[in-house]
Amino acid sequence: FFADLRTSLSRPAKEQITFHSHRGLQCISPLMQTVEETPQPIPTKIKGHIPKWINGNLLRNGPGKFEFGEEKFNHWFDGMALLHQFQLENGTVTYRSKFLQSSSYLTNSQNNRIVASEFGTLAMPDPCKSVFGRFLSRFEIPQPSDNANVNYVMYKGDYYVSNENIFMHKVDPETLETKEKVDWSKFVAVNGATAHPHYESDGTVYNMGNSYGKHGSRYNIIQIPPQESNCSDMLQGAKVLCSIAPMDKMKPSYYHSFGMSKNYIIFVEQPIKLNLLQIITSQLRGKPISEGISWEPQYNTYFHVVNKHTGEALPGQWYSKPFATFHQINAFEDNGCVVLDLCCQDSGTALATYKLQNLRRTGEGLDQVYNSIPRAFPRRFVLPLHVNSDTPVGKNLNPLSYTSARAVKDADGKVRCIHENLHPEGFENVGGLEFPQINYTQYNGRKYRFFYGCGFRHLVGDSLLKVDVETKTFKIWQEDGSYPSEPVFVPVPNAMAEDSGIILSVVVSPTENRGTFLLVLDAETFRELGRAEVPVQMPYGFHGVFASH
């Protein structure tokens, strides 16, 4: 039942790190409301033009239903998964959406109340039970939710929707039909896996997942082999490549993603802690799982580097001052070092605000919520791999002239890593950056120049950004009252330039007459090529992928 651990939430700190104070924020409550599904494809209205070479499906995932009967979910991450599809073909676009037919969704619907507990919502006992029966239900082991509302992932040619628990659902990317539920523990000894795996060109996939036993917890790097035949064999052949012991086995760190270079997996052990005792007893104490997660900045952030070919963890100990990270940008190797780029926050308390009651506030209350949270900024770390007893103490070990990141060996042999900012001065004005994306198929694990993301001058993304890591300049797309989703990069076929392609982003608005549209930007110039307007309301979602035809 640890498998429900999905996305971090911690108790509000006494002192928050803030940057620019904002006032008069627009109410975004309509972006966090239940909507109806659109199961049959509907046409969109094209403005500008959609390049005819783009053929495939933009698949998006996120919460779309926030109550059953009179009972309401408490947290944004608890909403039932609504799957979206924008099908692009020969310059036209159609849209459809379907609710994931998970056990949680079906059981809640059948009972017209919240039966399955979620990350921030504890399901109440059946009111039809006796008082004694309701009391005994507190001692039952809760079943993990299978509400896979975070991302689409691919294993062996098949698409699945995933969050971070023990269950995924195989889905048809053409019809959005829910196919079958897959239990990670039936294939490999883990209690779940992230919704951000990494892919090799041959179809090999790497992921990470925790395991929990009587002796505490472990972080596990998982390798899933490519498909061996035309027959789907799901996760057959998956294995734990390396198992890493947490600093504290009863309080492991939360993680949402990890880095991968050509030869290494890079895991960031951050001081967002999962208190296993509190999580185990959450139902008994009448608390949701989220109450067992906390930011503990008395601990540093550590980097673990594992050879993905041998499964061996490198013996070095790299660390930084405490920071929190949810999404990595890229990682690559150069001159005996691993270069790791991350979106970082100086405090791990930000997601405590993502309760629905906060997101639905208006006026000064909404401004106060936004101004209380830290922002995420892109940062670069350099990890020198060949550090030994002969390596001098106190000297900068970074040999790379193009980055000012530092790595210094301490007297105890550990290597202290000091980041370089990958953004220009004044980047605070766009609210920092999250939901980073790159030209993944050609540049993941390689030295690169550009990444894309959402600017956050609100509690959700309110702009799209393109950042040049060499010149530390950026380009921006924004439109008042519009809130774009994670940008997805689609390369031009046979392109030579890194940024030769288009950016796809679903843009929503809380204003009723503004509507929703799929935005298409030229990735090089960051200018709009066209948009496909959809005559339905959509909530703000999480992640997605483009599946080419």
UniProtKB/TrEMBL annotation:
InterPro entries: Carotenoid_Oase (IPR004294). One of its GO terms (biological process) is retinal metabolic process. Keywords: Dioxygenase, Iron, Lipid metabolism, Metal-binding, Mitochondrion, Oxidoreductase. Its cofactor is Fe(2+). One of its GO terms (molecular function) is beta,beta-carotene-9',10'-cleaving oxygenase activity. Its EC number is 1.13.11.71. Pfam families: RPE65 (PF03055). One of its GO terms (cellular component) is mitochondrion. It catalyses: beta-cryptoxanthin + O2 = all-trans-10'-apo-beta-carotenal + (3R)-hydroxy-beta-ionone; all-trans-zeaxanthin + 2 O2 = 4,9-dimethyldodeca-2,4,6,8,10-pentaenedial + 2 (3R)-hydroxy-beta-ionone; all-trans-beta-carotene + O2 = beta-ionone + all-trans-10'-apo-beta-carotenal; lutein + O2 = (3R,6R)-3-hydroxy-10'-apo-alpha-carotenal + (3R)-hydroxy-beta-ionone. It is an enzyme of class 1 (oxidoreductase). Its main location: mitochondrion. It is found in: Mitochondrion. Binds 1 Fe(2+) ion per subunit. Fe cation binds at residues 196, 256, 327, 543. Belongs to the carotenoid oxygenase family. Broad specificity mitochondrial dioxygenase that mediates the asymmetric oxidative cleavage of carotenoids. Cleaves carotenes (pure hydrocarbon carotenoids) such as all-trans-beta-carotene and lycopene as well as xanthophylls (oxygenated carotenoids) such as zeaxanthin, lutein and beta-cryptoxanthin at both the 9,10 and the 9',10' carbon-carbon double bond. Through its function in carotenoids metabolism regulates oxidative stress and the production of important signaling molecules. This is Carotenoid-cleaving dioxygenase, mitochondrial. It comes from Nothocercus nigrocapillus. The lineage of its organism: Eukaryota, Metazoa, Chordata, Craniata, Vertebrata. The gene is Bco2.
